[in-house]
Every structure is written in C-alpha cells, then in structure tokens.
Amino acid sequence: MSCSNCSSGGGTPRGCKNNGNCSSGGCNKLEVFDWLANVALPSGQSPYDIVEVRFKNSRKSFYRNAKGFSLHVGDVIVVETSPGYDIGVVSVVGELAKIQVKKKAPGFKPMEAKKIVRIATQEDIDKWSKARALEKEVMYKSRTLAVNLNLEMKISDVEYQGDLSKATFYYTAEGRVDFRQLIKDMADQFKIRVEMRQIGSRQEASRLGGIGSCGRELCCSTWLTDFRSVSTSAARYQQLSLNPQKLAGQCGKLKCCLNYELDMYLDEIKSFPKTDTRLKTEKGNAYHIKTDVFKRQMWYAYEGDNSGLVALTPERVREVAKLNADGKKPFELVEFKEIVEVKEPDYSNVVGQDSLNRFEHAFKAKKKKKKPANKRPNDGVSTERVVPTSNTPLKDGATVAKRPNKRPFKNKRPNSPENPSSNEQSA
User: Fold this and answer.
1) In whole angstroms, what separates CA 308 from the centre of its chain?
2) Domain span at 265
C-alpha cells in the first residue's frame, strides 16, 4: 500500500502507527473508492445524512450526521457510544454511503442510528493516540491473566474506546469459556470497563492481516467483507491436490480464493463426460487420471501399462463409451497414437552453464599443431638427403669415421684415467 498521501517526510506514515494503517486516509484497510464523488446531486436534493465510519482495523459502522457537518473522507470525528464516546475516521459519504447501507445493512433504520457528536479536536486526537499506545501492553497482560486461570482461549486483539473508559478484548476459543473471573481481574488491574467478544479464526486473520502464499495481502483484510463457506469439493472440481498445507490459509481454514473460479469450473465440467466410466479397448481397459478443463483434454491410462498417458477430447471419450455400450471395442483409445511418455527431466545443465573443460580441446589442438617447414624449390634436383656412413665413398678416397654408439657421461671427467676422452674411445 502506498503512503504517499500520509508520509511524514522520512517514509514512515503518521497517525496511529499501526503497521502502516494510518488514520490520514493513505493506506486504510477495506478502503472504498468513491466513484460518485464528482457526480452532482439534482437540484433541491439534500445530501445523504448517513456516513460510514471506520475504527481500528476492519471494524466499520454507520452513523447519522444529524447536525449537518461538512464531512469528507478521512475526517476524524467523535461519535456516540454507550457509555461515553468513540473516535473514528470517515470512510464513505454521500450517495455511495446509501448503496453501502443497502448492501451491508438491509434492516438498517436511519432514525435509530447513533449520531455524530462533533469533528475531533486536537485534544481528542491526542487522547485517541494515547489509547492506541496502551493496547499492545494491555493485550500481553491480559494473556498472562488468562493463562494463570487455565482458560483455553487466545486473546488476539484489544481495542480501546476513544475516551479511555472501555476496552474490547477479541478472543478465539474452541468451545465455551467461563471468563467471569478474568473480567474481574482485568477490571481491577486496568481500571476500565471490559467487554469480551468472541470471533472466529477468519475474523481474527482479517483483523490482524498478513501476506498470503500468493505474495499479496490477505483478501479478508483488504477488500473481502463476507466470508462464505469453503468445502473440499471446490478443490476437487478444480483438479487440485488435497494437501491441507497448500489449501489452508493463515486462519487455518480453506482459502477463500478457492471459491473465486469455482462457478466457471462447474459450468465447464458440465460439458465433460463422467470420469467413473472405464473405457474398454482390444489393447486393454483404460481408466481416468485427470482432466484439463482449459485445454479440454481428459487423460487416461491403460491398466497395468506404465508407458504413458493418453490425452483424449471429450468427444472421443463419448465415442469410445458409445462403442462399449453397443458391445464393440476399438483397437485403442485414439486412431493415431498420441501417448505422452513420462520422462525424467534432465537436470545436468539447468541454468545453461558452460562446461568447465570447454577450452581443453582448443588448447590441445593448438599444442599439437606444428609450424610448416620452409621448403625450397627443387628446380628438378632431388631433395633426398644422403646420410654418409663408413662405407660411403667420398672424394679423394676418404672414408667417414664411425660414430660412437654411446655418448660420454656428462657427470664424469673426460680426462680421468678410468674414463678416457671421447676422442680416444672413437679412435
């Protein structure tokens, strides 16, 4: 969420400092865009006197503007409560508030609604900020009191009233909890009126907020206002694996987003044949594995054959089923073999990295390569080299002396008496 409208200059939002949910209107929970703000009312029609007021986290309520204050979205106002008064922020005004009343509160009676007392002053805002600062410490202390009384309950949130006379404690529990002694202990320690309100796990996640597995903020804390029941059949219709760790949200229940595309899946599945029918062929019987709704393909596998899966269209499945009903068996499921073999992926070079010894071949080839000898033109003369030996006649009848078979050792002195010189050995 952006805090460009409520930044205090250093990138931190001003207001209640409640994880960025500030009171200046920049990043509100369940924020509503007033698309009727620029629409002028007909002449002679007075503005709608019911406004929607937002309190801590996602709690909202409707109040009547009996005194005719000029209110806008984001204004901090003082409203009636029993007892005392509370402070909230205006979230919806005008004709859009009338639509919200019809949608969220069908039996709402405007004349019985509580009134707006005044626009909050600086003193009221300072008192309200002090109440918000006390909530975290009071919640931890109340949890300690509940543990000392061995109560099976979890206090998840505390909301102070704007006049510091009352506090509402939100808790979750599996069954009924007798918290009469807990209320007495909290009233004695905190010196306030105490109200206990039990909420469900989904309401708890909506109030606290968080990040879902999709990487976005929770739907229940940003825009979702009604919680519909979600069953495991919604996952089956969408061909999802029934893994509780993947299907459950932060509240521990099934994710609300499983219902978003369920209606589309139900409409498309009506055009597919039943999956419990086994197809009979001469090659063997085949049973259904999975269905791809978007590609309109049904995957079948032969019994006892692990070679692969066969992708069929719904029309082909009906055709084979009709042949089986008439007592006939096709040779195989498809006229042309379209078996998809299941192969293990090759992870040898996943990231496209070059081999470490990619330069060895070039280095070896360069090392073996020799420079070509400088050849002279022979001009018709033979270039064969004659090596003179002892029997090779030379000019003037001279002969070539024989070369020694072994060269003298370099580590021995040539003039020692034990080792005569090389000239003497050759002689």
Assistant:
1) 32
2) 228-269
